[in-house]
Each structure stands twice: as C-alpha cells, then as structure tokens.
Amino acid sequence: MKTFRIYKSYEELPEAWDDLVGHDIFLQANYLEALENATPNNIQLFYIGVFKKDMLVGIAIIQRVQFYLKDMFRKNTMSYIKELFREIVSRVLKGNVLVIGNLMHTGQHALYYNDSQIVQADFFNTLFQGLDELIQTIKKKHDKKIRAIIAKDFFTDDIILEDKSTFRNHKLHEVIVQPNMILPLRDHWHTNKDYINTLNKKYRDRYKRAKKKFGAITSKELDIDSIHEKSKTLHELYLNVSNNAKFNTFILPENHFYSLKLKLNDNFKVFGYFLNKDLIGFYTLIINGKQLETYFLGYDEEHQYPNQLYLNMLYDMLEFGIINRFSNVVYARTAMAIKSSVGAKAKPMVLYMKHTNVLMNSILRPIFFLMNPKQDWEERHPFKT
C-alpha cells in the first residue's frame, strides 16, 4: 500500500529522509533548515514523503508562494501595451501558488524516488494525492486558495519525465523555459592555465582584458564571522542585481547567506571582491557532490562595467571548479550569452503548470511566456576547434 505524509518543517522529517536523498544537497535536511531560517517572506515550505508500507520511497519539496505585483515587476517605466500585459499577469498569478521545486535555485531539486521500490506512475499518483490534501489544508488553516501549481525545472532528457502521462492527466501544461547554462570541466584541466590554453585567440584576449580591468581589486573567501559581520553590505549588493531584473518572484532576507553558511559549512562558499578594503562585489557557490552550483551574487554598479566584475566572477567560479576537480560548473539560467562566452553550454529545460480555474488554465500557457520571455542570444564558441 502506497501512502503519503505532509510535513510543515524540516524538524518533522523522518530519519530516513537524508539517507534517501544523499545525492543532492538541495534535498537534504541541513539545506532545508537553512532555507527555513532565511526564506523570503512570501514563501512557505512544505514536504511530502511517499511511503510503501512504512518505508520512505520518495520525497517532494513544495513551496507555497504568494505572488505580489510589486515584487514580481521591478521596472516602473513600461509602454502602455506592456503595462496592460503586466496587469493581466498580476490578475492571473496574484495570490498563492504551489511550486514543486525551489524558486531560489535553477534545476530539478524537488522530486526523488527510489525506482527499485516504487514505479514512476505510482510515485506521481501518490504525490498528487498529497498535493490535493495540502491544498485543502492551506485553504482550511490559512484561508488561502491555491491559484496555480508549478513543477519546475526539468531537463528535457530527465529520466523523471520518461512517462509524462501523470502531468497530462492532471491538466498541467508543458512550458519551455530558459536553459540551464552548464560548463563541463575537461579531464586535462588541472590549472587555470590549462583552460586558457584551450581558448581561441579572441577569447584568450578577452580573458586577459577582463583580468587587466580587474585592476587593484582583490578576492578572498569570507569565513562565517565575516559573512555575519557584512550581512547588510552583502544584501545591498545582492539587491543591486535583483532589483534590476525585469521579473522576480521573491527577495532574499538579509540573513540568507549567513544561514546557509551556518548549516552547510564548507559546502557553501562566499567570495568577496574588495577595493581599498571596501566590499564591492561577491559571489556564492554551493558544493553538490561533483557539481559546483553557482548561487546568488551581487556587485556595486559603479564598478561592474569598468572592472568587468560579472565576467571576472564567471572566470573565478570556473577556476575554483578546475582546481577542486569538479565535473561541471552549473551557471544556472539568465545571461546566457556571456556564460556561453566562458564555455558554458545551454541545456534545455521545461516546467509543468496549471491554474486551478479551468478557464484561466486554458490561457495560462501563453501568459507564462511573458513571465519567462524567450531571449534572442547568440551562442559563443570560445574553444579552439
């Protein structure tokens, strides 16, 4: 017999949870605890365990997200047509949405099941029973109606999509979203020099220019005390980047990076860029097995272009990955062209979604393209042929 249980906190998770999801740090209790202690104020976490008899055989990470117009759209100067579309989107999506996944990171870090213990169809059918109960619980206890369900971010060749009938049977639309930018690290790259030697002349020169423009800026890893001390500055630098996004679904709280460092220890890295002892930029990394996952970053806009801070961050993330012998650097979505110029490849992704109102569900798919607009960008080819 297959059953499910709903958990409202990492503290309630069964002991077998981490044993099942040891392959992915984003599913483990330490990360979930850090997230709960420093989650955006419009996000609430839930967890679903799928059991076969009394054995935990599958899990799901669920986020209840409250979408607000002021948080979703940061640009105030819009044409009349765009303003009209913004109003339509806000009316369709404003309110509570259940996300099967993690809005704070690109990738499928939400679902896992032991395929030797349960077949895919049974896992998903049990999961959706749990979702139905969770929707009713939220309505009863919080008086909040769930307006939509989103399952994010699946690679198009993900084995978990082998049978898509469950999503179709539950009226979820498949929607193409921006790709994940991933740079596979070559076996013969042992130092940064090995990487540079594989670049063609144009991109070797580009690398040298970026490092020259870096000037007197120095980089160093921040320990937990420094992260705590500089939390306010880190948050301000993060907001410089976040507030310039055309569309956003959350704002990280000030203690977010400290909370992750506190719980993930050496698996969470914060590197700061300093000029005359002033912190002018930073980037963060999460070590997920052999995958080096890039996380949030921030910078002082005054130095971004003159010193090519963002491009230097991409190079420095890559160098860390090479030296520490990771398999891939996962650069995530957005800014595809510049990430491509460093050597990252676009891996296609989709998500599944539905509106709980039948009429709205029929128009939700085209509306979502406004949220995640297709960007025209040219793939770069930095390596020697």
Short description:
The chain has helices at 16-20, 29-37, 69-72, 80-93, 120-142, 165-169, 192-198, 201-213, 224-229, 231-242, 256-264, 301-304, 309-323, 336-342, 358-371; strands at 2-7, 43-52, 55-67, 95-100, 111-113, 146-155, 173-184, 218-221, 268-275, 278-288, 291-299, 328-332, 345-355. The chain is an alpha+beta fold and 385 residues long. The mean pLDDT is 90.
In terms of topology, how is this protein built?
Elements: E1 2-7, H1 16-20, H2 29-37, E2 43-52, E3 55-67, H3 69-72, H4 80-93, E4 95-100, E5 111-113, H5 120-142, E6 146-155, H6 165-169, E7 173-184, H7 192-198, H8 201-213, E8 218-221, H9 224-229, H10 231-242, H11 256-264, E9 268-275, E10 278-288, E11 291-299, H12 301-304, H13 309-323, E12 328-332, H14 336-342, E13 345-355, H15 358-371
Parallel strand pairs: 4-6, 11-12
Antiparallel strand pairs: 1-2, 2-3, 3-4, 3-5, 6-13, 7-12, 7-13, 8-9, 9-10, 10-11
Helix pairs in contact: 2-11, 4-15
Description:
This protein is α+β, with helices and mostly antiparallel strands and 385 residues long. Helix content is 38%, strand content 28%. The chain is built from 15 helices and 13 strands. Strands 1, 2, 3, 4, 5, 6, 7, 8, 9, 10, 11, 12 and 13 form a 13-stranded mixed beta sheet that branches. Helix 2 (29-37) packs antiparallel against helix 11 and helix 4 (80-93) crosses helix 15. The longest helix has 23 residues, at 120-142. The N and C termini lie far apart (56 Å). The mean pLDDT is 90.
